[in-house]
Specification:
Layout (H helix, E strand, L loop, with lengths): L4 E3 L1 H30 L8 H25 L1 E3 L14 E9 L4 H7 L3 H9 L4 H6 L5 H4 L3 H13 L5 H7 L3 H4 L17 E7 L10 E3 L3 H6 L7 E4 L2 E10 L1 H5 L1
Parallel strand pairs: 1-2, 4-5
Antiparallel strand pairs: 3-4, 3-7, 6-7
Length: 251
């Protein structure tokens, strides 16, 4: 079964325009270069001919790739894009931090100790976190009070039920902690604020904050909600905003 390429209407038009430019401008120019090189005679030691033929092959490969994507394109319907969960076409505002930098730097980015614990919970249990506190620097900086606070704040949220936190390894004393909502994010105090737009693979442009839904970060963020925390390698991401620019998707 051929691979499906998810893209916006604008992304499809970009591919069509690129294909047209190659066929009408770049390929004819290369054909002309090849003809000129051939006119020079012996081709066995003609560097210009070899270079032109290589460029022609590269352009043909690009043509074939674009045709495949267009033939198997799935165009996003702006009406189907939700703004309560991360999906392709969304701009996602996150607090991003590298746990390898240590607790102080992670907190400077805008993440709390509860956020750190929640991020680890997506990968391991509390028992594993405690057992590895000397092997993972930031875990060694967390205290028993931090786990108790995290348990109370997680109980106040909607992601974890008490039974799930028991399975995750929180103690009876921690589970007895008073459920307390987390403080709202103060964006003015977050050094780690970033915005990523989730797009189809061919529209990805990391330099401009567009990441593929097939990338590790993009895939991890998909279907998550505001205030969710995800962990990718040593990176933690807390979702603080989800925006759908339906005009941009439709454009």
């Amino acid at each position: 079964m051929p691979k499906e390429y998810i893209m916006t209407a604008a992304g499809k038009r970009e591919l069509e325009e690129r294909l047209e430019h190659i066929k009408m401008v770049e390929m004819p120019a290369i054909v002309e270069e090849i003809a000129k090189a051939r006119a020079q005679g012996d081709l066995s030691e003609n560097a210009e001919y070899e270079i032109a033929r290589e460029e022609q092959a590269q352009l043909q490969n690009e043509i074939d790739a674009i045709k495949e994507k267009l033939a198997n394109a799935k165009i996003l319907d702006e009406k189907s894009i939700k703004d309560d969960v991360v999906s392709i076409g969304c701009a996602v505002e996150v607090i991003e931090a590298d746990i390898a930098d240590g607790l102080a730097e992670v907190e400077k980015c805008g993440l709390t100790r509860t956020d750190i614990i929640e991020g680890f919970l997506t990968k391991v249990s509390v028992n594993d976190m405690r057992a590895n506190r000397y092997n993972r620097g930031i875990l060694g900086e967390l205290t028993a009070e931090d786990y108790a606070t995290a348990c109370g704040e997680l109980l106040a949220g909607k992601r974890y039920k008490k039974e799930e936190l028991i399975d995750k390894g929180f103690t009876d004393a921690e589970l007895a902690s008073k459920a307390k909502p987390r403080a709202k994010v103060d964006r003015s105090k977050c050094d780690g604020l970033k915005t990523y737009t989730i797009v189809g693979s061919h529209e990805a442009d990391a330099l401009n904050g567009k990441i593929s839904n097939e990338s590790r970060v993009g895939a991890a963020l998909l279907d998550k909600e505001e205030n969710d925390v995800v962990m990718v390698g040593d990176l933690l991401f807390k979702i603080v905003g989800i925006v759908v620019d339906k005009k941009a998707v439709k454009r």
